[in-house]
Design a protein that fits this description.
The complex is a heterodimer of chains A (113) and B (112). Chain A has 113 residues and is an all-beta fold. Chain A has strands at residues 3-7, 10-13, 19-26, 32-38, 44-52, 55-58, 64-70, 73-78, 87-94, 102-104, 108-112. By secondary structure, chain B is mostly beta strands. In chain B, a hairpin with a 2-residue loop joins β6 and β7 (61-66). Classes of the chains: A mainly beta (113), B mainly beta (112).
Chain lengths: 113, 112
Amino acid sequence: SQTIHQWPATLVQPVGSPLSLECTVEGTSNPNLYWYRQAAGRGLQLLFYSVGIGQISSEVPQNLSASRPQDRQFILSSKKLLLSDSGFYLCAWRTRQTNTEAFFGQGTRLTVV
Amino acid sequence: QKEVEQNSGPLSVPEGAIASLNCTYSDRGSQSFFWYRQYSGKSPELIMFIYSNGDKEDGRFTAQLNKASQYVSLLIRDSQPSDSATYLCAVSRDTGRRALTFGSGTRLQVQP
């Protein structure tokens, strides 16, 4: 069966520090991968998506970046965090087939102080 | 206009009652429709997925889709206190990025 791992679960980082969040998917090949952010009490906002290795599309201008170095690995990064980067970061995957579900990782709670 | 609209609630129902959650969307090209349950501080959990007009039932949950009206609903029968959570509606196209667009969620409270 397919599973998705995301770490760390929680993170407290000072303003101006770098960030690296990692997500890996098991049990499937060539998935679409997504990074979402959920601010407190808000809906999920799509940040990045990837349809293949090295293929990254950004949905929202910001100081975050994403990379996909391997088929089932998706990384969210920042060189210098801002207070506004605080939130709940969620990785998701979906197969390439039509009419299929999308599943989320456990999420990372990021607090920038 | 938001792409996916939900009443934020809270929707309060007594234990054992039917909870009815509604969602409208603006993109007529949407092809897949999702309901996720999210407990406070946790990741969204997929509970229903539908892509054809009509009803889809899974246990106590029934999803209803009406593409002509751009409307999706979720019925929860025999509501339990453990159903108390925020329910997120999401839609997507099945071409291109195939990313899900979410509503802001409806908070459901089931009173014991």
